[in-house]
Amino acid sequence: MSPAVRKILRTLAVLLFWLLVWAIAAAAVGQELLLPSPAQVAQELIRLARTGDFWLTVGRSVLRVLTGTLSAVVLGVGLAFLTHRSAVMEALFSPVMTLVKSTPVASFIILALVWLGRSVVPVFISTLMVLPVVWANVSAGLKGVDPRLLELAQVYRLPRGRVLRRITWPSVLPHLRAALRSALGLGWKAGIAAEVLTVPPYSIGKRIYEAKLYLETTELFAWTAAVILVSLLIENLLLRLTDSFGRKDGVHA
């Protein structure tokens, strides 16, 4: 049995174990209002998925969160290169990143709601929460570049593009992958939390808020499951995309 197959089987076994624990707990409680069973949540999710409104809602939320997350990746990578080259810029931006990481998300959401429209707040919050993670990881990758290779590149007067692709990128790629793995989860949590508080039209956060408001616990669990599934799907797609870029340039993460 190959390692990949063993990994899949182990993951399925762990998943089944926790689903069994959930089912036993739901049976012990005996009230769908308090804790629906996995089967009830799956049936509700299937019912929702059969409606066009579900896919429009998921699509809008995905667009908001991905826009914010990818904006943070672009800004974080650019800012990391900037602060890596300038000690002054690093001294200026480091406290800001620490402040953003330390401040509760709810505080930023409420402030952003004062400044921005409801539909823009989730994008802004996702960007703001992900930016420090990307900046810190890419900065660590840049600091890990072998200075001897950079000196050798200068001696042979290699083009900047080749130096970036062959020397800098291999050092940054593992850190960028780690940043993406953390950023996607953080971006989803922050973005959906912003939607719950701002309730923009056609958003998962609004549907979660309404389910809580009307005590539709099974629907609440179903929307939460949808968030998790979509998050895992997008995370795997983006990580595979990052790997493909690495293989194209002869880099193996």
Overall description:
The protein has 253 residues and is mainly α. The chain has a single domain, classed as MetI-like fold (Orthogonal Bundle). The protein is 84% helix and 0% strand. The chain is built from 10 helices and no strands. Helix 3 packs parallel to helix 6 and helix 3 packs across helix 8. It starts with a helix and ends in a 5-residue tail after the last helix. The mean pLDDT is 83.
Write the layout of secondary structure elements.
Blueprint: H1 3-29, H2 38-49, H3 52-85, H4 87-102, H5 105-115, H6 121-143, H7 147-155, H8 160-198, H9 204-213, H10 217-248
Please outline what is shown here.
It is built from ten helices and no strands. By secondary structure, the protein is an all-alpha fold.
| Count of helix runs | 10
Please describe the biggest sheet, giving its number of strands, its sense, and whether it closes into a barrel: none
CATH architecture: Orthogonal Bundle
Count of extended strands:
0
Net shape: globular
Residue-averaged pLDDT, rounded? 83
Sketch the topology as an H/E string, one letter per element: HHHHHHHHHH
Which oligomerization state do the chains in this entry correspond to?
single chain
The helix content, as a percent range, equals over 70%
Please state roughly what percent of the residues sit in beta strands, choosing from under 5%, 5-15%, 15-25%, 25-35%, 35-45% or over 45%: under 5%
Low-confidence stretches: none
